[in-house]
Write a structure and sequence with these properties.
The structure is a single chain. With 306 residues, the protein is an all-beta fold. The protein has one domain. Helices cover 0% and strands 21% of the residues. The protein has no helices and 13 strands. The strands form four sheets. It has a six-stranded antiparallel β-sheet, with no helix packed on it. Strands 2-5-8 form a three-stranded antiparallel β-sheet, with no helix packed on it. The chain is elongated.
């Protein structure tokens, strides 16, 4: 089934300005003020017995953090009001978070680990929110996505692109997300990695100074869709090589980065938050795994009949 004739809104509070006594089932059903709210934390069917106008929030799974690298990008964040649905069954897909990059061998060994995985898409009708991009691993790559993964920082030719990766890929209007932050200069002993982007802001760049601060994940987006305000879809924080400050996870489920051989922190469940970058040392020791991205979420609401 497909929806049509919807009014795309910006981020934040949600409202319905139209249409008729919608009747539907599926997901966890609650009420908030004058609205009936269907919340999907896993894939299921939204069954409409009487069509009309609905509002939606569709958040994709967050990207995995890089091993010895950048934070994962938040899952794509899309919302609109007055989206018209006809009667019938809509298959709701709630995207899973992407796995973090796998740790490699000690520097000078036989392997530099595996790359992180992009988050999975979330889908409602004709609306697709794209999974968050993975943070760059020492294996050399990150990915674009709903929001982009952060750039890495390890030294050597294994890290060809320290820039953050693109968000809002593929492009939507309004934008579903932002770019990841840039990783630090690999020639600096205690360099940091960039943070993952999110729906409201780009990931923060790493700053390579006397005390390195790895990039924080972009702060998530607040909405009062189900009643009280909830912030979701924060970017993952970057890791730091050696001494320095790890990147904080973005508000709204972003996982923090780490140092030494610790694994990055995972994104929050059903927030679409990006995973934090795994830690690493200077020329010694195995790297830490990147944190996994958080799963996504779909919420649909409409005016309650009467």
């Amino acid at each position: 089934m497909t929806g049509f004739g919807f009014n795309v809104s910006g981020f934040g509070a949600f409202s319905s300005r139209g249409g008729g006594p919608v009747a539907a089932s599926g997901g966890t059903v609650t009420t908030s003020g004058n609205f009936t709210v269907h919340t999907f934390t896993s894939s299921a069917n939204f069954v409409v017995s009487n069509g009309g106008n609905v509002d939606f929030l569709v958040i994709a799974g967050g990207g995995g953090g890089g091993s010895a690298g950048g934070g994962g990008g938040a899952g794509g964040f899309r919302t609109a009001t007055d989206f018209e649905v006809s009667s019938g069954t809509f298959a709701i897909t709630v995207g899973a978070g992407g796995a973090g990059g796998g740790a490699g061998a000690a520097r000078g060994g036989t392997g530099i680990g595996t790359v992180g995985i992009k988050g999975s898409n979330s889908v409602f009708s004709s609306i697709t929110s794209t999974g968050g991009g993975a943070g760059q691993s020492e294996a050399g790559v990150g990915t674009a996505g709903g929001s982009g993964g952060g750039g890495g920082t390890a030294n050597g030719a294994g890290m060809p692109n320290l820039n953050g990766y693109a968000g809002n890929t593929p492009s939507t209007s309004p934008s579903q997300g932002n770019n990841g932050g840039q990783g630090g200069n690999p020639s600096v002993t205690n360099s940091g990695s960039g943070g993952g982007g999110d729906a409201s802001a780009v990931g923060v760049n790493s700053t390579d100074t006397a005390v390195t601060v790895a990039g924080a994940g972009g702060a998530g987006t607040a909405s009062s869709f189900s009643g009280s305000s909830v912030t979701r879809a924060g970017g993952g924080g970057g890791s730091v090589r050696g001494a320095g400050t790890v990147g904080a996870g973005g508000a709204g489920g972003g996982g923090a980065g780490t140092r030494t051989q610790l694994a990055g922190n995972g994104g929050g469940t059903n927030t679409g938050g990006g995973g934090g970058g795994g830690g690493h040392l200077n020329n010694v020791g195995n790297q830490g795994n990147g944190g996994s991205g958080g799963s996504g979420l779909v919420i649909i609401r409409y005016l309650t009949d009467g």
